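To: structure desk
From: M.T.
Subject: fold request, one chain
Message: Could you run this one when you get a chance? Sequence is below, nothing fancy, just the single chain.
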Amino acid sequence: MAGQRVEIDGGIMEGGGQILRVSTALSCLLGVPLRVQKIRAGRSTPGLRPQHLSGLEMIRDLCEGQLEGAEIGSTEITFTPEKIKGGTHTADTKTAGSVCLLLQVSMPCVLFAASPSELRLKGGTNAEMAPQIDYTLMVFKPIVEKFGIKFDCDIKMRGYYPKGGGEVIVQMSPVKQLNPINLTDRGTVTKIYGRTFVAGVLPFKIAKDMAAAAVRCIRKEIRDLYVNIQPVQEPKEQAFGNGNGIIIVAETSTGCLFAGSSLGKRGISADKVGIEAAEMLLGNLRHGGAVDEYLQDQAKFTVNKSEDEDDFSRETYIIECQGIGMTNPHL
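Reply: Done. Structure tokens follow.
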């Protein structure tokens, strides 16, 4: 099955973990051996971190492949994939490494597995430098389901920086192939909703203050919609450690979804966290596109100026992504 090995320079794109996740998933899907060098060369702590390592090990296990050079701090790995099979697989970062990034590397693979999969992903659910699990559920999931994917994600435990300790269980059935989608009609914003949370020792007042500040900020620009942001105290048995944060989602008449989110950090006021999320959402709405900045960056795209001259008020661009036309050989 193994073809010619593909060599990837891990320093390209932003020189972080993304190039590693994308190339490993593609290697697994296509059955092509891979070598990645200069892994995370651009980062302050170069090489593999626990989160990348646990993701690689899960992909290896998913397809009973071979993985060499996979240890913390390593800047080069080789990976030889075999047949992707379903079943139950666990990845544990043992840190606050993001469970959402673990899902990002494993999801394409299990979609083209021989049978359904259950992924037990452990680490941070609401962590910096990664999507929050709430974004994955509220924005990523409904949009990705338009491609004909179905998945369930059960948050067993939330985990925050620096301890992690969160766990989500993702259940997914394989597909024969993905359906193409067209998301070019943005529609008008019909709903704005979200949640703020505190966990652990943090007082509930912080959740209320984040929500109030975000609502005030949104009201300055969008006056005619009810903004429904619910403050939540995470139950003790469902959250490990201390944390606070916010996610706000805007939904449009055509089913487009946009988000703004932020996490609390030591020394940052609740108001500031709420305003940061609101500003992010408003920025994503102002640009007039049909997806937010965090859904746009997930593959290779062509960007062309739209020939549709109906809208003289601003230039519109059509962003197209050509899929690889993958079909599931096992189904």
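Reply (cont.): The chain has a mean pLDDT of 93. Let me know if you need anything else for the meeting.
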